[in-house]
Amino acid sequence: MSRMTHQGTKDIPLLFAKELTKNVKKAWKDGSFIESVNPITKDLLRFWFGDAFCDIRNFNFHEGQKQAILNTIYLHEVMGVSSVMDMYQSVSPELLGEMDILDLEKEKYKHPKYAIKMATGTGKTWVLHALLLWQFLNAKTENEFSGRYSKNFLLVAPGLIVYERLLDAFLGKEQMDGTRNFDESDFKIFEKLFIPPAYKDIIFGFIQSNVVRKEEIGTKVTGEGLIAITNWHLLAGEEEKSLNRSPIEDPSEVIKDVLPITPGLTAGNALDSLDNHYLKGKEIEYLANLQDLVVFNDEAHHIHEVKRGGEIFEVQWQRSLLRISEPKKEKFIQIDFSATPYSVTGSGQKRTKHFFPYIVVDFDLKTSIRHGLIKTIALDRRKEVATMELDFKATREGNDVVGLSDGQKIMLRAGLQKLNILEKEFIALTADENGVSSKHPKMMVICEDTKVAPFVTDFLTKSEGLSEDDVMEIHSDRKGNIPQKEWNETKQRLFNIDKHQSPRVIVSVLMLREGFDVNNICVIVPLRSTTSFILLEQTIGRGLRLMWREPIFEEVKTENRIRLLDKKEEPLNYLDILSIVEHPAFIEFYEKLIDEGAVGTAEKPPTGRVNILGDIINVGLREGYEKYDLYWPLIIRESEENLAPTELSFDNMEPFPIALEDLENLIPKEGDVFYSEEVTVRTRFGEYSVTAEIFTATSYNEFLSKLVRGVTSMLIPVGKKKKKSFPRLQVNTAEIAKLTDEYIRHKLFEQEFNPMIDNNWRILFLSESQILSHIIKNVSKAIYEMQNNVDVTEAEVIKKPFSDVAEIKMRENFCLDISKAIYEKLAYPSNKGGFEKAFIEFVDKDSEVYSFLKINEIYHDFAHITYIREDGLLSHYYPDFLVRTSNKVYLVETKAQKDVNNPNVQQKRRATIDWIDKINQLKPEDRLYSQWNYVLLGENTFYELSEKGADTVDILEYEKKTRGQIEGTLEDYFI
Prior knowledge:
Layout: H1 3-7, H2 12-30, H3 32-35, H4 39-49, H5 51-54, H6 63-78, H7 84-91, H8 101-104, E1 113-118, H9 124-141, E2 152-157, H10 160-171, H11 186-189, H12 191-194, H13 200-210, E3 211-212, E4 226-231, H14 233-236, H15 251-258, H16 271-279, H17 282-288, E5 293-298, E6 305-308, E7 311-314, H18 316-325, E8 332-338, E9 342-345, E10 352-355, E11 359-363, H19 365-370, E12 376-382, E13 395-397, E14 400-403, H20 406-430, E15 442-446, H21 453-463, E16 471-473, H22 484-494, E17 505-508, E18 521-526, H23 533-541, H24 554-567, E19 577-582, H25 584-597, E20 616-620, E21 631-636, E22 673-678, E23 684-689, H26 700-712, H27 733-746, H28 771-788, E24 796-801, E25 807-811, E26 815-817, E27 825-827, H29 834-844, E28 851-854, E29 865-868, E30 874-877, E31 881-884, E32 888-895, H30 906-920, E33 931-938, H31 939-947, H32 952-959, E34 960-961, H33 963-967
Parallel strand pairs: 1-8, 1-11, 2-4, 2-5, 3-4, 5-8, 12-19, 15-17, 15-18, 16-17, 18-19, 32-33
Antiparallel strand pairs: 6-7, 9-10, 12-22, 13-14, 20-25, 21-24, 22-23, 26-27, 28-31, 29-30, 31-32, 33-34
Helix pairs in contact: 2-6, 6-9, 17-18, 26-27, 31-32
GO molecular function: ATP binding; DNA binding; hydrolase activity
Domain Helicase C-terminal: 421-606
InterPro entries: Helicase/UvrB_N, Helicase_C-like, Helicase_Restrict-Modif_Enz, P-loop_NTPase
């Protein structure tokens, strides 16, 4: 056998897609592309991708979608290809030497055929919409029928979920009465993206009048053209039949063909049954008789060859497409969408992917993650240090499932624990004044068998305390099918889970592996021990869609990706991180999936207003920056000076309100520890235990060490360059450990408590939100009070220049050229940053201002004030601006008017006033020879005063805060 026959297609199609993309980008940039297309296509491309239109929209196609659309149109309209072989000859003929040319001569490749490879969750449906409109409008307006365009479309889904999703996209969400609201369709909601105004009426009329459901194909009368939507069952028949069996070998098949209905006493003789059976296959004949047709195959990895006994067979789905395309020849166009357009041969180390030979674009998983278009993936892996090997398959007696294994229970507990962590963080971030959150993270459990699903539900509800409403179990067979009647009852609740707190957990086998396009799946527990590449990536795909799409979160999510993927550091939060709880035995399959399918980061991030990374620039120090340099006073002690024991005492620390004897019976058993690992660069983070312990110490001493590090980590400044190490009011960690130990032993439970007897220290892990939090709050309070009682005349001051940070990154579209700062530009927020932008412009023009700076907490991480949060933990507060005049320095916090009285800033205010008081007691040379002030500047106040002619000093003096104002007393109120 020849080398190329042995290789099959392998990854050659990806090389073709890369070369095609290179050619298309060049043609698009030099204008030859747009000048080579029809007038209708030219109108569409300018409307979809022209800057004049993109700049005024809040949503646009991202780079991957744009490239898929352009590559397809380029091949079909500019190059005029008529077959897969023609594609290669037109773009990259040298690659044909690596292909099986005889394979490309098969009938199924002898018409225009394009495969769009895009990661799950990156918006393949939007590409489908655009290409459908391109085909329809050109077919509608062409003077001479060419066969290159069509008004007839067949959309094929792999199952009920994708089928329903497509109906939603074209007709709108289904209402409780069974009708659909077109105002909720993609074309109506995103009208300003898809439809140029001149074509609005014709497009809306076509869609609303010509969509045909699967049961209506061939019977519903439409106008000019049709959009037929079906699932694969229409093309494959009721079920797959043996591919190597002939009717002669099975006489019953002949009888069925001659006598379609077997007489009987039930509904067999009913006229509707006879009619329905007679019409089976008529849909395919109807489609075959159309003069032209465009077929869109969603999740098209189902269409591939099957090898049996050394012979190659086409699946029934593909055989039906061949039947439909046969009379049309080049007037049959097939466009396939899939995140996994390949088949797999071999097993183990010999397993090989064979990509579809007609892939025209490759927007893969890694690229999508880097662009922030889907969630970042993290594997929650179990530590195997000093743990027993566990069985991760269900317990069986013969073929009967009798229960879950210990390994499965641990995985479920780990997933549930991660879900609880996310719920707590998300609620804290988005809860309204009534404590109601708008974000509801979900966990999805993929079972190994339909018989296992009920045991998972029982375990979660009976052993883990979830209510019946918290768990939704989807019953399906091994092929992922679900009875129509049950589906009708299930889909309304299933498709709306993002909007409601319950269910929290969805349990399924295969039903939800494709097309389950909800956004809030944040945790996946795959109990299946599958080795299927496609099933693994499809499983991951269920949770990839973004949950946090609001622009306000883009910058923090960008920082998360930078930390995880580039710096390999702990994420700042868990926004849009998909956690997959997995046993180490299966990790290799995920690693192969990522490693083999990745081609690296795209050249450019998404364009348009959804751009996240594309306009990031580096801004350095201006020439002569010394004139405008400011420094941040860091009050320190000599590093070798220890605190006197009397300075830290547990006398004023509060005991825990629950008696020790009431806690002793609640000591948990040893738990399992999980940690998260980002899958593309292997950043490890987020260690947690399935028993809800937040400190996983194996000894009391380790517990004390971790607690001390947790409390004091907020007190140690971490510079970008990390060239200097200086103690800010440094607290000797040994003294804190001693204080914590004495507090626990003598004061915490209002009696003597020895943590080293009978592992009593484990009591400290009970009730995470109570005991540990109580300890941390009291230790933090003691440290904070000690620091604020320091006599600053005995302290040393390090003047930390902001110019030590010589370069910062900012978004080019959201920064201003200024003259009175050390940097050439200053940034303002991309979302609702109008106030800060106006303030920067105003201050820069004021002659009374010597210099000013926008503090960037990522780079100027030393310029913060330590305060006690409402939950009692020590944290850092970063003011927005520093403004210096002739004899004063103002710390300015700019707030929208609605946030000025937000109770969440009260603690920051008090801490800032305390800090200002300490700074003003320093020697003049240690505080820029200036009096320091704190200003909480409201948006309305700024605009009102500036419009009345007030200058910067007038406004800041008007809004500066005194201790009396902060504490609500008359003292100093009128000073």
